[in-house]
Automatic annotation (TrEMBL):
Transmembrane segments: none annotated. Keywords: Antibiotic resistance, ATP-binding, Kinase, Magnesium, Metal-binding, Nucleotide-binding, Transferase. CDD domains: APH (cd05150). Residues 21-223 form the Aminoglycoside phosphotransferase domain. PANTHER family: 3'-PHOSPHOTRANSFERASE, PUTATIVE-RELATED, AMINOGLYCOSIDE PHOSPHOTRANSFERASE-RELATED-RELATED. This is Kanamycin kinase/aminoglycoside 3'-phosphotransferase-2. The lineage of its organism: Bacteria, Bacillati, Actinomycetota, Actinomycetes, Pseudonocardiales. One of its GO terms (biological process) is response to antibiotic.
Length: 231
């Protein structure tokens, strides 16, 4: 029997069975997601192993451990480990990455997308699509500090060893690609300050950025969170 895990924001259904996770979707590019997971593992970055992958279906081996969204006795350890993982990912050579998530790709994709206006971040609650688009175009950063980004680095998507706190693997890599590092940093910190993840909070987000070796960048943080509203 498959046990239902989630229905993702973009309509993917995830279920699990003895050591295996199965994701199905009519709309998401699950072949692209499988290719990205395989590529990550080849680079030495821990990620779910792909067992089966075809249009509409992605089957992965269960990554051991628990996600950062589960309760942890020492949340600081998880934050540090998430930061170390982020640094390792962002240290990969961009020239070796065949996936492009730079603004040249993602802004046109956003302009063609149909954002869920009922699921906007609090600071944009009630905005129209036109207003989102206008703000996106008006605040598009002039420069991009390109690294290999996961693309959806929120706390449920990273798993950790309960004994050591080390990262055991990432999942949900369908939007991995070369992009400004703030694509990941903006989403990771938003996830850390999200009230649903109350074991973390603003201090945890500050700790994460410091360990990533980055000064806060409010403009890029705001822009990449806005961009994420479209996906
Ligand atoms: N191979 C795996 N090993 C362990 N846990 C997994 C695995 N695949 C998925 N999960 C768990 O299931 C959750 C949902 O899977 P996933 O993140 O891929 O889908 P989603 O967020 O619902 O989809 P999307 O955002 O693409 O619509 C993950 O957050 C993770 O906790
Ligand atoms: Mg996910």
């Amino acid at each position: 029997m498959w046990e239902r895990v989630t229905i993702g924001q973009s309509g993917a259904a995830v279920s699990r069975r003895a050591g295996v996770y199965r994701k199905t979707s009519d709309v998401e590019d699950l072949v692209g997601e499988g290719e990205r997971l395989v590529w990550l593992r080849v680079q030495g970055i821990p990620a779910a192993e792909v067992l089966e992958c075809e249009p509409g279906l992605l089957v992965t081996a269960e990554v051991p451990g628990r996600s950062a969204a589960e309760p942890w006795p020492d949340p600081d350890r998880i934050v540090d480990s998430l930061a170390d993982f982020t640094r390792a990912l962002h240290a990969l050579p961009v020239a070796d990455c065949p996936f492009d998530r730079s603004l040249a790709v993602t802004v046109p994709e956003a302009l063609a997308a149909d954002p869920d206006l009922d699921d906007l971040d609090d600071e944009r609650a009630g905005w129209t699509r036109d207003r989102l688009v206008a703000e996106l175009l008006a605040t598009r950063p002039a420069d991009e500090d390109l690294v290999v980004c996961h693309g959806d680095l929120s706390v449920p998507n990273v798993l950790f060893d309960p004994e050591t706190g080390d990262v055991t693997g990432v999942v949900d890599a369908g939007r991995l690609g070369v992009a400004d590092r703030w694509l990941d940093l903006a989403i990771a910190t938003r996830s850390l300050v999200d009230e649903r993840n109350s074991q973390y909070g603003p201090d945890a987000a500050a700790r994460y950025l410091e360990r990533c070796g980055t000064e806060p960048d409010p403009a890029k943080t705001a822009f990449y969170r806005l961009l994420d509203e479209f996906f």
